Amino acid sequence: MLTSFVDGIFCCFTGKSTNVVVPIESSEPTDGFEFVEVKPGRVLRVRHIIPDRPVVEEPGTGEGGTVSCKRKISVYRNGQLLIENVNEATHPELVRYQNGDSTVDTDVSNCEAPPAAQASEHTPGSATAGQAMDSKPAPQQNLQQVQRRRRKPKCSIVIDCERKITCCKGTHPDVALFFIHGVGGSLDIWGSQLDYFSQLGYEVIAPDLAGHGASSAPQIPAAYTFYALAEDVRIIFKRYAKKRNILVGHSYGVSFCTFLAHEYPEQVHKVVMINGGGPTALEPSLCSVFNLPTCVLNFLSPCLTWSFLMAGFAHQGMREKKLLKENNAFNVSSFVLRSMMSGQYWPEGDEVYHAEITVPVLLVHGMYDKFVLVQEDQRMAEILLLGFLKIIDDGSHMVMMECPDLVNTLLHEFFLWQPYPSPVIETVIKKKRWSKIKSLICFCLTFLDITY
C-alpha cells in the first residue's frame, strides 16, 4: 500500500501514471499465445489453441432442427416496447400484451400475422417478452373502447427468418469458441474453460482487451471507448472465425458478444452471457469513483482491489485472493480503468437491438453477484427470442472462476444442444404446419435438463 501512495504522489507531480500496463513477460509457455496487431501500434495478446483431433466429416444436412424466428417489434412514443412472436395463422383477434408493469391493448387484424401461441420459446420460470396475457376475443361492448385507445407505434421492425441449429462438437474443425473478458480482467480468467474445452477437441480463442493482460496500453482515452474495443474484437473474430462460432462473454465482454451476434448472425451460432446485465443502452455514470483523477485512483488502488474481491466473489478467503493474483484479474492501471469506465457509451444497444438477435443465448448468473442484479438477467431472458437463464447458487460475479466445473459442464451441454423433435410430433407438425408450437415443444423437451 505504501508503494501505491508513493506512485500517487509521483503521478500528481508528473501528470503521468506510473502503473501503465504494457506487454508483460509471461511465465507460461509461448505455445498457444499470439500477438495480433489490430491497428498500427495496437497489439493484442491472443491465446489460440488448435487441439490435435481426427478429421471428421461435415455434419449432414438432416442433423439439427429448424427454428422459426418471426417477430414484430414495435416502439411507441412513450418508450413502451411491444414484441409480437407471430406464426402462420391469419385469424385476427384482440390481444393484450404485457411489457413490464404496463399493458397495451391492440387490434392485430391489420398486422401481417397475429401473435404466436402467445408465447415464444422460453425456459420454465422465465417469462418471455411479447407473451399474451389474454388471447380470447374481447366482448363487443369493449371493442370500440379499445380501438379508441389504440396508438400508432413510433416505429416497427419485422424479423422473419428460419434458423438451423445443430450441435457444436469439439471434433468438428468448423467450430470455434471465443472468450471475451470484461473490465479489469484478462484472458487468464478463462484458464479453466480454455483448458477444459481444448482437451475436448474445441478450437478456443481468447484475447486480452487493450490495456489488459499482456496487450498494449495506448495512453489516450479514445483507445478505450466501446466502439474502439468493439472494432478490436471484430478484427479478432474475422481473423479466427470458422463456419460455426460460439461467443462466451463475461460482464462488459457480453456487450461485445452481443455486437458480434448482431453484426454476423450467419457466422455466430450460439452465445453465452455470464453476468452481463440487462438489455440497456450503455452510458457512463456521471457520479462514479472512476471519474476521479488518475492520481487519486492510484491512491485508492488497494481499496478498489479489496472492494472488487468483496463484491466479485461469494466468499473472500485465501482461495479467492489466490485466484485474483494468479489469473491477473483486476490488475490494470488506473488510467486504463478510468478510460474503460468513461468510454462505455453505446446508445444502440437498447432493448430493440437485443430483441433482433435470433441466435440461441444461454445466460449464466451468479446468485451472489453484487455488480449485476438477477432482475437484469431476467429482463434479458425476456427480451431475447431464444434466451435461457441459469442461476448458479454458489457463484458471484466471477462465477467461472469460483465454480469452474459446474460452468464448464453447463456450457458444454449448451454447445451440444440442438432441437431434436420426436417423429410423432414432427409428423403432426408437418401436417398442421404449426411451426411455433414445434419450436416450443422441441425447446421444452431437449433443454429442460439444464434450465429451470
UniProtKB/TrEMBL annotation:
One GO process term, biological-process aspect: phosphatidic acid biosynthetic process
Record Pfam families: Abhydrolase_1 (PF00561)
GO cellular component terms attached to this protein's record: mitochondrion
Location of the region described as Disordered in the Swiss-Prot/TrEMBL record: 105-149
Compositional bias per record (Polar residues), positions renumbered to this chain: 120-129
UniProt key word ATP-binding: no
Domain AB hydrolase-1: 176-402
Swiss-Prot/TrEMBL keywords: Hydrolase
InterPro entries: AB_hydrolase_1 (IPR000073), AB_hydrolase_fold (IPR029058), Epox_hydrolase-like (IPR000639)
GO molecular function, one term: lysophosphatidic acid acyltransferase activity
Family designation: Belongs to the AB hydrolase superfamily.
Name of the protein this chain belongs to: Protein ABHD8
